[in-house]
Specification:
It catalyses: acetate + ATP = acetyl phosphate + ADP. Pathway: Metabolic intermediate biosynthesis; acetyl-CoA biosynthesis; acetyl-CoA from acetate: step 1/2. With about 400 residues, the protein is of the alpha/beta class. Helix content is about 40%, strand content about 20%. The protein is globular, with a radius of gyration of 21 Å. The two termini are about 20 Å apart.
Length: about 400
């Protein structure tokens, strides 16, 4: 049956892919090419519960997509079932408010937004061009992380800086993780009828982390800004802080402002505070064995997540649901507990037994009896959204 979609997600030094069939419900094969740009780059295929690894002679995006094409040539039944390709794109600026079929104009638009996402957008554009070259004739769709947040009101998305910066350069809050938030909003409406007419808070917590307020199914505020550096403390990102710190760091270390910014992006957050790791699992193990720095990093992360949940909640009429998603949100009962302990003033409470026993990879209600807000753990599925958008646009 011809209904498979190849989903491609090009990162700056990685490329994730999956082939989804049955209206996005069945994953036929998935994998990741990582360490692109280094001599140790490889691509992993997971097919029928088995993993195989191919070393990449040239560790670049083109070679990674070429390996996917070679794999498909050896599995012709899957290759012949492909009807399109969906690409995750981090930044769509103000040009893209929804997913679109890709043509040269769209590629130009993605490239134009590279100034806001210099690590990601050039990689997306490259991945798209390579896919057109290797899969001629297959329609391709771009799905933007920023699109879901284009419903923010001007008082939420504008920065309090001279308006000429917005008029001439489009400097504003854009927000990210939009594809994840859209999935969570739609999935919650299926498991809790009427939630698409209510106020929903979502914490998407992973190595990159953000919060979002969803009012009647639309994003009304989010914590990330013009780039993913604003908002929560994250794996290696500092999140929001006094902008003067960039100047202080650059003078103290005798480095440029860009180098100081690089420290805030790549050496801060959980990694910077713990001085151990940016990985939550590693830090929880260290904390369990008595490491105070690991505990401090996790508790700071929780405090800031709660703060940004409350911040975006100011755009809601009521807080009917709180959803935890993303790798950390779905798997860390400790962080969910600490985050919710900071939300007691809003009467958001979780049942510690339900929270501890929430099964991995499952949707779960962890609400306490005395909570005003229903609290959920819902695994996100961005690949499904990309596949569904691709099918929808191809069929029209």
């Amino acid at each position: 049956m011809k209904d498979s979609i190849l989903v491609i997600n090009c990162g700056s030094s990685s490329l994730k892919f999956a082939i989804l069939a049955n209206a996005g419900q069945t994953t036929l094969v998935e994998g990741i090419a990582d360490r692109l740009g280094s001599s140790e780059s490889s691509i992993t295929f997971k097919y029928q519960e088995k993993k195989s690894i191919v070393m990449l002679d040239e560790g670049n995006h083109k070679n990674a997509v070429t390996q996917v094409k070679l794999w498909l040539s050896a599995h012709s039944d899957i290759e012949h079932s492909l009807i399109g390709i969906g690409h995750r794109v981090v930044h769509g600026g103000e040009a893209f408010t929804k997913s679109v079929l890709i043509n040269q104009e769209v590629i130009n638009g993605i490239t134009d937004c590279s100034k806001f996402a210099p690590l990601h957008n050039p990689a997306h554009a490259k991945g798209i061009e390579v896919a057109f070259e290797l899969f001629p004739g297959l329609p391709q769709v771009a799905v933007f992380d920023t699109a879901f947040h284009q419903t923010l009101a001007p008082e939420q998305f504008l920065y309090p800086i001279p308006m000429s910066f917005y008029r001439e350069h489009h400097f504003r809050k854009y927000g990210f993780h939009g594809t994840s938030y859209r999935y969570i909003s739609q999935r919650l409406a299926q498991i809790s009828l009427g939630s698409d007419q209510q106020g929903v808070l979502v914490a998407h917590l992973g190595n990159g982390a953000s919060t979002c307020a969803i009012n009647h199914g639309q994003s009304s505020d989010t914590s990330m800004g013009i780039t993913p550096l604003e908002g929560l403390m994250m794996g290696t990102r500092s999140g929001s802080l006094d902008p003067s710190l960039i100047s202080f760091i650059s003078h103290a270390e005798n480095i440029s402002a860009d180098e100081a910014l690089d420290i805030l992006s790549k050496k801060s957050g959980l990694l910077g505070v713990s001085e151990i790791s940016n990985d939550c699992r590693t830090l929880e193990e260290a904390m369990a064995s008595g490491d105070q720095r690991a505990k401090l990093a996790l508790d700071m992360f929780a405090a800031r997540t709660a703060k940004h949940l409350v911040s975006v909640a100011t755009t809601l009429e009521s807080i009917d649901h709180l959803v935890f998603t993303g790798g950390i949100g779905e798997n860390s009962s400790y962080l969910r507990q600490v985050i919710c302990s900071h939300l007691k003033a809003l009467n958001i409470n979780i049942d510690s037994t339900l929270n501890e026993s929430a099964p991995r990879g499952a949707e779960y209600d962890i609400t306490a009896n005395n909570s005003n807000t229903t609290v959920w753990v819902i695994p996100t599925n961005e690949e499904l959204m990309i596949a569904l958008d691709t099918i929808s646009l191809i069929q029209h």
